Amino acid sequence: MSTEPKTRLVPKLRFPEFLGKAGWTPSTLGMACDMQAGKFVAASNISECHQTGFFPCYGGNGLRGYTQTHTHDGTYPLIGRQGALCGNVRLVHEQFHATEHAVVATPRTGIDVGWLYYSLDLLNLNRFATGQAQPGLSVDVLENVALAISPLAAEQQKIADCLSSLDELIAAQGRKVDALKTHKKGLMQQLFPREGETQPRLRFPAFQNTGEWEVSELGGLSDVRDGTHDSPSFFQTGKPLVTSKNLRPDGALDLENVNLISEEDYEQINKRSKVSVGDILFGMIGTIGNPVLIKLEGFAIKNVALIKEVGPLSNAFLVQLLQSGYVAAIFAVLNTGNSQKFIALGKIRELPVPVPSLPEQQRIATCLSTLDDLITADTQELDTLKTHKKGLMQQLFTSTDGC
């Protein structure tokens, strides 16, 4: 590939064989494709499970289930008309039913279906939605959205093939991440006892004959406290204040989307709940759980539990136990019926914790943290591929103003 000056309406990046060829034509979506809303189907006619003779049913928010009827047969881009994913674009293949909440885009003569799909995806169509309570997209509005079209069928196909290959890499990497997560989940179910049991189903050879795990309350094994319950003022600059929303499900701490507090409030909060490297944070309000083993300092906490290692219970082991189905099942029962998800600090202190010997704790923690490192590395690779694709799309397409 090579860059090309903006002397005509052309992309910033063009494949070598198309350098100097005809520029792209300013047009509209209505000139590139025919757009029609799908057909209504009653919820009673939609099955959640795939059955013989049933077809995928797509609405504005994606796959809704399966129906005995199909509206289309082939490959088509679908645009969500309403709901949380209004403007979302997906490429659908073979026989399927599109509901009235999805717009089916049929490419006109001279338009490659793959090229059209990536063009629609890049346009960020949800910005054209209208309405307050329930934003939606009308076909009339979509037809008038500006679009620059390559007049070269070979160029359209080359762009589509390039991005499709990237999508296949991204999908394969996504499956790799999912497989690792599934493997870890299954391993945790074997390495930790189930509720009411005192031994796991799977033990490392060195510990197979070392007896049952002792069950004790967490508060008797670790220093369990929480952050401030006050509501300090926020500022443009200052110290980060971490709450449950900053505890990510992957075990990482999000310090980008935090409110900032004054140095004075930071010092006051940390008199009772200073967070140190090696501590665990555990969500108590809104988000229950998402335990994070802390690797850096310099922030205060509000409405999250703080667990400090003080005895024979290793936090490296405990953070894995807190991520397990064993703990999730216990807290799910405690939280049943609450309008807002909440777990009291006292209940966290009373959590029954099955504890093996310290060497077995360390062996389990090492095994699972190694898997965590693999998942993190592969997830970062997945994010890199997605970022690369986004940047590539912005250069392979051009807008009607030449940007």
Supply database-style keywords.
403 residues, alpha+beta, 4-stranded antiparallel beta sheet, 10 helices, 4-stranded mixed beta sheet
Describe the protein in words.
With 403 residues, this protein is of the alpha+beta class. Helix content is 33%, strand content 21%. The protein has helices at 29-32, 113-122, 139-143, 153-191, 218-221, 263-273, 315-322, 325-334, 345-349, 358-396; strands at residues 2-3, 13-14, 25-28, 33-37, 55-59, 62-67, 72-73, 76-80, 89-92, 95-98, 102-107, 146-149, 214-217, 222-226, 239-242, 259-261, 280-283, 289-293, 300-301, 304-309, 352-355. The chain has a four-stranded antiparallel beta sheet with strand order 4-11-8-9. α4 packs antiparallel against α10. The longest helix has 39 residues, at 153-191. The chain starts with a strand and ends in a 7-residue tail after the last helix.
How is the secondary structure organized here?
Elements lengths: L1 E2 L9 E2 L10 E4 H4 E5 L17 E5 L2 E6 L4 E2 L2 E5 L8 E4 L2 E4 L3 E6 L5 H10 L16 H5 L2 E4 L3 H39 L22 E4 H4 E5 L12 E4 L16 E3 L1 H11 L6 E4 L5 E5 L6 E2 L2 E6 L5 H8 L2 H10 L10 H5 L2 E4 L2 H39 L7
